[in-house]
Design goal:
This protein is an alpha/beta fold and 500 residues long. The chain has 20 helices and 8 strands.
Length: 500
């Protein structure tokens, strides 16, 4: 009987211990966007403390008054060096500004006893061994001054170097497409989970509940939220304060979700709108222009006769060529937009703009790439027409050159239509990206096709080819060579593509 009672109480103790493990208190942290006003900042610190938050992640050293306030509330501070989207070149050949930034921030953090960990970078090229090799001396220098944990933020715990960086803050980006299938890596390399909902989901509580449920599988790992999101959410949903307080306590939080209609995952409608508008203009052009209506089939079915018609100036109007060039620019831009939308994430696009700031002239979203594609396509057409015109001694009319150049561009109509249709139907990314690449290649090769047609009527075949096709090929080979030999550019492009 005694043995039976002993076994019963032992089993009960195991059950209680198991339950305690499952519903143990969680460590909460906040990525703090420090307000400019000191009093507002102090009020936010007190609010965080009441919510049960114990980790304060900051992206720059605090003022003396705020350091004192954070210390008085017993926060564990995680300080960021403020380095985003670094590559191996970033640390291998740092400029003086970056060196000064690292030294100043590291010194400021190391002088504060409350700083428990230091963030080396966010979203770096962690898949490259050379990246960690270049970062290692910097990490060693920081640790030489004081023993402090080092970490980084990103998506890939599998490629983290735990010798250089002690742990990873895993950025859990939640979108409408992933809200019901959030992936949480459970590994010793992860030292924190950051809740990062998409803009479309930021006002909903269901994604937060999903995030909490998934991270409950690793209750010892802290969870962090962004302060801007937290403060806005507390105004909209005051019950979140009770949830956080319960999470920080040794209890099983009861979270009553309101009825919410989450937005459905959807792709941008811009390529589809452009496709419909362009095909409408093609139909209008075909119906209203007898010259275009007769010539379009003649170009593909009786190409030599079409070229003869151009040189004999049977087609004098520049309007067909202008229409085709404009339509091509729009469809090419729509295809590029579709390809980039599936090939690169929001974070990857941000990295691309970070390393190539000139791209932000038209904004800092994928729509900027749409405008860039239109601009480059139109510029390429203009330069190509002028190049061919100046190289050919027998032709005195730009309309003849423009017509010969523009007609091959109509292949983009078919390729872009297929690409955008695949994009709208949710086809595999590979096919959409391939369609976008082929559309761009048609834009580039149209010059070569036009030069071949014009060469039939040139006075010196070899001279004309040297001045056009050969030189044009060398130009593109040179551009590709410059890009491939520039480590900083290739590393930045590779990083943008790798960030999911």
């Amino acid at each position: 009987m005694t043995n039976l009672r002993s076994r019963f109480f032992l089993a009960l103790a195991v059950i209680i211990a198991t339950c305690s493990t499952v519903h143990a208190q969680r460590t909460l942290g906040v990525q703090w966007q420090v307000p400019n006003n000191t009093q507002t900042a102090k009020a936010e610190l007190k609010q965080f403390e009441k919510l049960g938050i114990t980790i304060l992640q900051i992206d720059a050293p605090l003022s003396p008054a705020l350091w004192q306030a954070a210390d008085s509330l017993d926060f564990d501070v995680w300080g960021e060096l403020g380095i985003r989207f670094p590559t191996a070149t970033t640390f291998g050949s740092p400029d003086s500004a970056l060196v000064a930034q690292i030294q100043n921030r590291a010194s400021a953090y190391l002088s504060q006893p409350s700083v428990d960990a230091m963030g080396l970078f966010s979203f770096g090229a962690t898949g490259e061994s050379s990246f960690w090799e270049q970062l290692a001396p910097i990490a060693s220098q920081i640790r030489a001054n004081r023993s402090v944990r080092l970490y980084h933020s990103g998506y890939s715990p599998a490629v983290s170097d735990t010798i250089v960086s002690n742990f990873l803050i895993y950025n859990t980006h939640v979108t409408a497409a992933t809200v019901d299938s959030i992936s949480i890596p459970i590994t010793q390399k992860v030292g924190g989970y950051l809740y990062a909902p998409s803009t479309a989901l930021s006002s909903y509580l269901y994604p937060l509940n999903q995030f909490i449920d998934k991270t409950a599988l690793a209750p010892d790992i802290p969870i962090l939220v962004q302060s801007d999101w937290l403060l806005v959410t507390l105004e909209r949903h005051p019950q979140v304060a009770d949830l956080l307080q319960d999470l920080a306590a040794e209890s099983n939080p009861a979270f009553a979700l309101p009825e919410e209609d989450l937005p459905k995952p959807q792709s941008s409608t811009l390529p589809i709108i452009v496709l419909l508008v362009v095909w409408g203009s093609i139909a209008f052009h075909y119906h209203s222009s007898p010259i275009y209506r007769k010539s379009i089939f003649r170009y593909f079915s009786a190409h030599k006769f079409f070229v003869n018609d151009i040189f004999q100036r049977h087609i004098r109007s520049p309007l067909p060529a202008i229409f085709i060039i404009l339509q091509t620019a729009l469809l090419t831009a729509a295809s590029v937009f579709a390809a980039f939308s599936v090939a690169i994430s929001e974070t990857g696009l941000e990295a691309l703009f970070f390393h190539f700031p000139i791209l932000t002239i038209w904004g800092n979203s994928v729509f900027a790439l749409f405008i860039w594609a239109i601009s480059i396509s139109l510029l390429l057409s203009l330069v190509s027409i002028l190049w061919l015109y100046l190289s050919h001694k027998s032709i005195k009319s730009l309309t003849q050159i423009a017509t010969i150049y523009a007609w091959p561009l109509q292949l983009t109509f078919l390729l872009s239509t297929i690409t955008i249709t695949l994009f709208a139907s949710g086809a595999a990314n590979y096919w959409i990206i391939s369609g976008g690449i082929l559309t761009v290649l048609v834009n580039i090769l149209s010059f070569v096709i036009a030069a071949g047609d014009l060469n039939r009527f040139s006075r010196s075949t070899i001279s004309f080819l040297l001045k056009t096709t050969v030189l044009y090929a060398f130009l593109w080979i040179g551009v590709a060579t410059v890009i491939l030999l520039n480590n900083q550019w290739t590393e930045a492009i590779s990083l943008a593509a790798e960030l999911i």
